[in-house]
């Protein structure tokens, strides 16, 4: 009985003790925040230009639909991996919609002479390039994280070091593309010299298994232009991959990209090239598939992202929206 009264008396003290602890904790918190010796630590995000990234900041800080908000990015050592979010405007057809396939052109399965692949030179004109369209219409979220990555690299390497890093990266990509062109043209002496170049030898090893599935090369480093939409670009390769005619795009990476969504705007680039080929009178055939090959610096097996006709059509519509946005920006800049 005595133990019961003791337990009862202790339980009655618990609310009082809890209240005292809460008040002490609140007082300590208030003192810490209001203390003149407290200095708030600045973060890297306070240096971000609010006018430049105003829409993004509003998107990230607004409470509206926060539980349903998708995560369009996954950060990594190279900046971010952009995932194309669902966009209601992209479900609508562009105002100036043109089909991916050209109804006035011959069928996909037209047989061609197995001569040397086409290598059409890029013409200098006022038409926009695919690369410039994608760069100038880059989504604000993607531009935000790209700029963040750039600043981190400058902090790590210094401004001159970063410029040297970008220069070497560009040169490596250029050398790798030249090696792929030589391999597909069977220029053995050139290939042997390229393999001795340690900067790209691992990339060549990386794509070795992919090359075994590529046959019937029809074009290499060849210019394409969309004669109705007035844009142009340079295609890496047009060939058959496992029996299906494709636009093949070679990319290099120091980080694994096992999914198509990890490749930023590369699928849009492929779709743009497919549309251009199908509406270019220099090519008497059509293409409706794409292949994005990501070669790795460490020589590990490249990832091959195959895009079938349905997927290419989806990215084609996205590309047309980006092209319209580019043209609209051009009109506004001349006003």
Automatic annotation (TrEMBL):
Q: Name one GO cellular component term.
A: mitochondrion
Q: Which top-rank group of organisms is this from? A: Eukaryota
The similarity annotation says: Belongs to the MGME1 family.
One GO MF annotation is: single-stranded DNA exodeoxyribonuclease activity
- UniProt-annotated catalytic positions: 236, 249, 251
Name of the protein this chain belongs to: Mitochondrial genome maintenance exonuclease 1
Q: What is this enzyme's EC?
A: 3.1.-.-
Q: What class of enzyme is it?
A: hydrolase
Q: Which organism is it from?
A: Python bivittatus (Burmese python)
**Pfam families according to UniProt:** PDDEXK_1
Q: Which InterPro entries does the record cross-reference, listed alphabetically?
A: PDDEXK-like_dom_sf (IPR011604), PDDEXK_AddAB-type (IPR038726), Restrct_endonuc-II-like (IPR011335)
Positions of the PD-(D/E)XK endonuclease-like domain: 149-322
Question: What keywords would UniProt list here?
Answer: DNA damage, DNA repair, Exonuclease, Hydrolase, Mitochondrion, Nuclease
Q: Tell me the SUPFAM superfamilies matching this sequence.
A: Restriction endonuclease-like
